[in-house]
Design brief:
alpha+beta, 9-stranded antiparallel beta sheet
Length: 703
């Protein structure tokens, strides 16, 4: 006998009012019927299901050694608590017409104090405008198909269209037969294989479930119950077993009941999905196993960091997966784990976000994020952070999860993103090895990052013992009133400023000073700068005048720069307002450049900056043949770099003091004490102080 689900709808206490009776669920609604139904879904996180009392025997699951994570806790200053009286009630909607479609603006603020610290009516109003723009952008577009993992695009497109008023069309697509239904016969034809598909299957089931055909939702439930009766990862596929191997990511190649790839974002999608569906369908052994996996991941965030750190492309995908966990988990401890993960990732994104741009060093950098709204991460988190000069031209599709979620970041995190803290300040940070769950991965950091925040710019670089092909090593973002920010980026890859920490490249930074040195080779340096920059050459120094930020570049055994074109047309269009320089080696020992950055607060004016650099800055190349360069800035700060032949960590002196990499393990350490951010190595205590707010979160570990 097939097990049936029963439905229960839950409403926040604030909405349980005798006056809300019009829909037969305890309240009335003055909006159009479809929008009222959507309101119900948001209030209740859609229909909750409880399996019948029939017991389904399952195979025992071997438990991993558990990590005992202490309860997640947060602290907000009293001044940071929200004035909820000014808000429209949680779940309320405002409707307006957009063309022939009805567009809705969800007001999802939740009065639960666990939700957010200090999210204000003003922040919510800004958020609503940006959410409406995203819905309008996707309204009425084609959806695509369900081949492979294409649901990662087509399902969000349909969900946006649902919110825009095209409910019937969207629901028909969301419930259409999967293109690979034969491969998914064992789960009732429902695709629970691909991680990207899982992320949107969850939101379809839990959030939009109120509007699904009951028979279709029953299929999803029954399929999920079978899928999670034991750990689906590594379980031989009923048709393909362990797969044939080779290229591709489908079950016929990789086998198994679920996508087994272990990138941070794919693993998050898989683990959250297995947990939630095991919890939903009553498969307790699998639920407990995956609760431990989630524990370990969130513990790692707060104690050693994120393997796919600050990715300009993938951070938002992981974030969206944990929105599912926070929104839909029934176990309150797991819900808190979801909140902890979201707060940590929002904080990491906020530090690198600046006026619609996303900069500083990044892992899994694809090289397309070096303009405002260029990166997926900037396009996603701008919904929360704002502080932009123009609307998002292409909202990231994962925004559907943000719009339909209760989560809001703490006000201190938003202020961090908007750079509302005392400047200038230098922040040292560390990042773990990518596969940090393997033996030795928790022993010490793998990357050391230096970021400097001036009043009009932020500058960041990274060092590590090894080369790494997908790391963006160095970026500067500078204030631009019209564009948001200008970028200055450098690297030694390919025919343009491609990402990658290349063998031999060693970078040292002290506040506004940077030295980049590598053994001389035929590989040129490439520089990206805005076409609007004023460029001058005086005394062998390249001066760049941006709107409020000024750069002095001292070439070290480099030829005069020449402008080059980006060959790939799509990239050339993407960077149409930027110019790319190329400079080649002219010496036989070492080559590179030294950089000094100034602004009004530090140097008065551009002309005074140039004068000070020419008169006071000293670049000492006396020992260049042995790989040592010293830069004394116009303000008196000194940075010395010696190229390290043993590994890729340069030997640095900062104002005469040797920088000991192995004594700097903190995930975030500020030169201004705990402001604006601090998080020690394996302490689990995250603190953000920005604007007028303080946010603290702790994820501890027991014995």
């Amino acid at each position: 006998m097939m097990e049936k689900l029963t439905t229960k709808t839950f409403f926040p206490r604030s909405l349980q009012s005798p006056s809300w009776e019009g829909l037969g669920v305890g309240f009335s609604c003055l909006l159009p019927p479809a929008l009222c139904l959507l309101t119900i879904a948001i209030c209740s996180c859609a229909t909750r299901v409880t399996p019948s009392t029939q017991v389904v025997e399952t195979e025992a699951v071997v438990q991993e050694e558990p990590i005992q994570v202490q309860p997640f806790s947060t602290v907000c200053l009293p001044s940071q608590q929200s004035d909820v009286g000014a808000f429209a009630q949680h779940g309320a909607f405002a409707a307006k017409q957009v063309g022939d479609n009805s567009s809705v603006t969800p007001k999802l603020y939740n009065q639960d104090p666990l939700l957010s610290c200090g999210w204000t009516p003003e922040l919510e109003a800004e958020y609503q405008i940006r959410a409406s723009e995203a819905i309008k952008y996707y309204a009425g577009r084609g959806y695509g198909n369900t081949h492979g993992e294409n649901e990662k695009r087509s399902y969000p497109f349909a969900m946006f269209d649902f919110l825009a008023g095209n409910q019937e069309k969207a629901l028909e697509f969301l419930q259409s037969e999967d293109a690979e239904a034969r491969d998914n016969q064992h789960t009732g034809g429902i695709d629970y294989y691909y991680s990207f598909t899982l992320k949107v299957q969850l939101r379809k089931y839990f959030f939009f479930g109120e509007f699904l055909n009951p028979d279709y939702k029953q299929r999803m439930f029954a399929g999920a119950k079978k899928w999670t009766e034991q750990d689906p990862k590594g379980r031989p596929h009923p048709i393909y077993g362990k797969g044939k191997g080779g290229n591709g990511w489908g079950p016929e190649v990789r086998g198994g009941w679920v996508d087994g790839r272990n990138t941070d974002n794919l693993r998050a999608m898989r683990e959250v999905a297995v947990y939630l569906m095991a919890e939903e369908t009553g498969n307790e052994d699998t639920r407990l196993l995956y609760k431990q996996k989630l524990h370990r991941y969130v513990w790692a965030l707060y104690h050693i960091g994120m393997g796919e750190w600050d990715s300009e492309n993938y951070l938002g995908h992981t974030f969206a997966a944990y929105l599912n966990l926070y929104d839909f988990a029934q176990d309150q401890e797991v819900k808190q784990l979801g909140k902890a993960a979201l707060d940590w990732m929002a904080t990491a994104a906020a530090l690198k976000y600046y006026r619609g741009g996303f900069g500083g060093p990044t892992k899994r950098d694809y090289g397309e994020g070096n303009v405002v709204y260029g990166s997926n991460t900037a396009r996603l988190f701008s919904l929360y952070f704002g502080d932009v000069t123009s609307p998002n031209p292409k909202p990231e599709r994962d925004i559907i999860h943000l719009i339909t979620s209760n989560y809001r970041p703490p006000a201190a995190v938003v202020a961090l993103a908007r750079k509302q803290f005392d400047k200038p300040v230098e922040i040292l940070a560390t990042k773990p090895i990518y596969e940090n769950w393997k033996p030795g991965g928790e022993e010490q950091p793998a990357y050391w990052e230096t970021s400097f925040f001036g009043n009009t710019y932020q500058l960041g670089s990274v060092a590590a013992k090894f080369a790494d092909g997908d790391v963006g090593t160095f970026k500067l973002m500078a204030y631009n009133q019209e564009r948001g920010v200008d970028y200055f980026v450098a690297n030694t890859s390919g025919g343009w400023v491609k990402p990658g920490k290349n063998p031999g490249d060693q970078i040292g930074q002290y506040r506004n000073l940077v030295i980049w040195l590598r053994p001389a080779s035929e590989q040129p340096f490439f520089f990206q700068l805005p076409k609007s920059a004023k460029v001058e050459q005086e005394n062998g120094i390249w001066f760049l005048e941006l709107e409020k930020t000024w750069l002095a570049i001292h070439a070290i055994n480099l030829s005069a720069y020449t402008e080059v074109e980006i060959e790939k047309q799509k990239l050339a269009e993407h960077y149409s307002q930027e110019q790319t320089w190329q400079a080649t080696s002219t010496g036989k020992s070492y080559t590179g450049f030294a950089l000094e950055v100034g602004e009004q607060e530090s140097h008065g004016s551009y002309s005074k900056f140039k004068q000070a650099v020419k008169a006071k800055t000293q670049l000492d190349l006396t020992n260049l043949v042995t790989g040592t360069v010293q830069l004394k800035g116009a303000n008196g700060n000194r940075l010395q770099l010696t190229h390290n032949p043993k590994n890729e960590l340069p030997i640095l002196l900062r104002n005469g003091v040797q920088h000991n990499w192995l004594q700097q393990f903190d995930l975030y350490r500020s030169s201004n004490g705990k402001k604006p951010i601090s998080l020690g190595w394996k302490t689990g205590n995250l603190r953000v102080e920005a604007g007028e707010s303080i946010f603290e979160a702790n994820v501890g570990i027991g014995n």
